Amino acid sequence: MMILLGMPVIQIILFGFAITTEVKNAEIAVLDLSKDEATRKIVEAIEVSEYFHVAEYVHNTKDIDNVFRKGRIGLAIVFSENFYENLLHTGKAQIQLIADATDPNTATTLTNYATAIINNYQRQIVATGPVPYQIVPEVKLMYNPQMKGAYNFVPGVLGMILMLICAMMTSVAIVREKEMGTMEVLLVSPMKPIIIILSKAVPYFAISAVNLATVLLLAVFVLKVPVMGSLFWLILVSLLFIFVSLSIGIMVSTLTSKQMIAYLISGMVFMIPVMLLSGMIYPVENMPAILQWISHIIPAKWYIAAVKDLMIKGLGVQAVLKEITILFAMAAVITAISVKKFKNRLE
Amino acid sequence: MPAVDVKGLKKNYGKVIALRGISFSAEKGEIFGIIGPDGSGKTTLFRILTTLLVADEGTAVVDGFDVVKDYKEIRKRVGYMPGRFSLYQDLTVEENLQFFASVFHTTIEENYDLVKDIYSQIEPFKTRRAGKLSGGMKQKLALSCALIHKPAILFLDEPTTGVDPVSRKELWEMLKRLKNQGITILVSTPYMDEAALCDRIALIKDGRFLSIDTPANITAQFNQKIFAVRGLEMSRLLSDIRAFPAVKTCYAFGDSHHVTVETGQNELQESVQHALYLYLLFKGHTNVEIEKINPGIEDCFMELTKADVV
User: Fold this and answer.
1) Of A218, B29, B192, B254, whose Cβ has the fewest other Cβ atoms within 10 Å?
2) Which of A177, A183, A185, A195 to mutate to test the interface with B (most CBs of B within 10 A)?
3) Torsion of CA A227, A232, A235, A239, to 10 degrees
4) Boundary (domain end) residue, out of A108, A142, A176
């Protein structure tokens, strides 16, 4: 009943506010090698626009790599040396826009906005000056130069499939035992309840592991998405995520004794937020603060972020320590809840 | 030490009271029947005894172990067959039996002689899926699964509900044989006619035991004369009999109405019977038959529930 009444509210809010490909207040980095009047003006124009927020000023090209690795920055703007001088004397100056293209949609949007602002500035100075000045933005796409959509959706699909198989199937399988009455007979046996649950979860763990392998193989050989980073860590993080999803499934199964409800809970309460809030389809950065906050408690969000870092960006394990820690913590908390909630008896 | 010893069990589900204080004990090696209509608390009682539920009040000891404290020990020692068919429908007959044998850390071979009588009847269908069995065969399979680990006490919750009369009879014969092997059997049923097949019975209504005794003693305590009345228009007959002044109770019992009557001091049973006969003829009933019968468990149950209401 709660689900029936609550779902429309949640969906309309999600679709209405969160689900927009518009970018607002994207965090960017600026490398200003020239630091003159023109660059200052452009940076100002960028800062005052509602689209960007300059989060970092870096001082050399190497730092750009570093800020991208942190994953917070979607775009870096690099002004070449002697920017204003070049502009005045040769009538030409260069700006480099470096975008994180693991999500091609966002990357395109960001570079378009930035180019528009720069063109705007260019028109202003052309209007005041005698010479037709030209600022040439040069766009460089990090990690995914061909702008392949697959780079974005492979991690997303991984997160969704594993969540679907583990959480939904496990919960439904356990609840089916309750509904069929077999749980009643199993409980009145020397078998420990925890063994009953584990034996329900193990097959789905195996299936998920096979799925993981299939998706990775397809990604590499059919979609040509390379595994840039360590395969070992990618698999380890995935197994951790499978574990989190399994424990979610078990937790759901302790909440209800009807298969229908188990479907609804894992489908509506877990799947839809995973699709919408995990950053798989729509960038989380643009969502209202409250939704961003909610997205933090979605395991898939952390998993997808970690897979992007490990697989697409090819970063080392130290880049995803935060994600790993959070997934670990989630696994611990959810397992603790389900063990506590699981009953040795019928009620 | 009794096999099952229950003292003052009470259980509520929210506002619904399922058990209002039940005490009884079942001896080792007897068939103890718990007889009562649907919703009288039979299943709740069984679930408490099989450690699936915890009573609000009272204690229960099964095979020497407390149902709350030592529930793990009890789970090793009892066989439980729930009222609803609770096996894996998509496993075959044989797979189900194998599965439950392994759940109880045993094998089919080890205790085959115990289930042989029952299992041999369904063995021809052992590759059939359990969900495709008939009602009687399902119960036989369920009984085999509940027996496969050689339990000391067997709890059967309505084993004959939804089972054809022939299979019902067979099931009861099996219970007799199991009893002879020393297994204590607690069985519940809504069918009063099955009561006579138990060693001792408890009549249960609205979460309360009305009487605990052997079936013979319970019917012997019935101190009224009772008639069976038949006629063509049974429902009109019922209301007309109830309107007759000397009639105390009249209940519809399958193919006849069972009637108890009030007799005056010098009045003979036969004269009341005759008066009732004339009265019914006068009311326009045809083919009326009245015969004196021996009271059954159901008559006692009705009488006891009536006393309960007063």
Assistant:
1) B254
2) A185
3) -160
4) A142
Residue A99 is encoded by which pair of tokens?
């975008």
Domain around B277: 223-294
From chain A, the residues in CB contact with B85 under 8 A are 181
Which whole number is the average pLDDT over A236-246?
Answer: 90
According to the per-residue pLDDT averaged within each range, which of A59-68, A108-117, B25-34 is highest? Answer: B25-34
Residue A29, domain extent: 21-142
- In A227-256, the residues whose Cβ lies within 8 Å of chain B are none
**Is the pLDDT at B310 greater than 50, yes or no?**
no
Is residue B200 predicted with pLDDT exceeding 90? yes
**Contact between B103 and A346 using a beta-carbon 8 Å cutoff:** no
The reply to whether B183 and B280 lie within a common domain is: no
A228-239: average pLDDT: 86
Burial bucket for residue A28 (CB in 10 Å: 0-12, 13-18, 19+): buried
C-alpha A92/C-alpha A133 separation (Å) is 6
Do the domain assignments include residue B89?
yes
Across the beta sheet with B4-13, the strand order is B16-26, B4-13, B57-62, B65-66
Cβ neighbours around B2 below 10 Å, total:
17
Specify the range with the lowest mean pLDDT, choosing from A147-151, A195-199, A230-234, B82-86. A147-151
Q: What is the mean pLDDT of chain B?
A: 88
**B227 and B205 part of one domain:** no
Residue B184, helix vs strand vs coil = strand
Which residue from A182, A190, A345 is facing B52, i.e. has the nearest CB? A345
Quickly list DSSP for A242-278: HHHHHHHHHHHHHH-S-HHHHHHIIIIIIIHHHHHHS
The amino acid sitting at B308 is D
Closest by CA position to A234, among listed A222, A251, A217, A253: A217
Instruction: List the CATH number of the domain containing B233.
Output: 3.30.70.2070
